[in-house]
Amino acid sequence: MNPLVAILLAFAVLVIGTLGYFQIYGSASASANAQNTLQVIESIFSNTSQEFANNPNNFGGFDNTDAIQGNIVPTSWIPTGQTTEITDPWQGAVTFAAANIGTGTNNGWSMSLEDVPQAVCSTIASFFTPQTSQIIINGNVVASNPTYGGATGSWPPPAADVQAGCSTSTNTVEWEVSGQ
After folding, report:
1. 108 within 8 A of 149, measured Cβ to Cβ
2. pLDDT (tens digit per residue) in 11-42
3. CA 140 to chain centre
4. Edge to edge, what strands does the sheet with 132-137 contain?
5. 45 vs 83: CA distance, rounded Å
6. Is the CATH number of domain 3-178 3.30.1690.10?
7. Where are the alpha helices (DSSP H) in the chain?
């Protein structure tokens, strides 16, 4: 065999192996990032419930400042020196607000994450608690809980609906949660 051909063949095998490694590592890294983010989201839901435990139906005025001051979000999500800005692991804006659940007024809260990559969107958007009223992806309700005024027959969140909602390269995922 020609030495030049052998060198080119060895180089091709090395390149293919390296690309395969990075593809596997990238997928594993995205999955680990999604799992870490899910743990943070679970903590945020729990922290919000604890913060409003004495008055679970009065979220009037709830916003990012309250989430920061109440230690609801991890410090790693708060850019240095910020008192109102929160960012998710993909540097997308995180927004907290009061929500009207069912026929109530300010009886719940919402959290949205922007710039969620399509590779992890379904994993992130599938998270819910019993008090979750709706899951909204890119402005479209993909699941609503009939216990909290949502449409019947779409709860828990159907995996196919969540997957279909995560249709762009970056997505916005929002949860509306009852205070009860």
Report:
1. no
2. 444 434 333 443 443 445 667 888 999 999 99
3. 15
4. 94-99, 108-117, 170-178, 132-137, 140-144
5. 20
6. yes
7. 3-51, 64-69, 118-125, 159-165
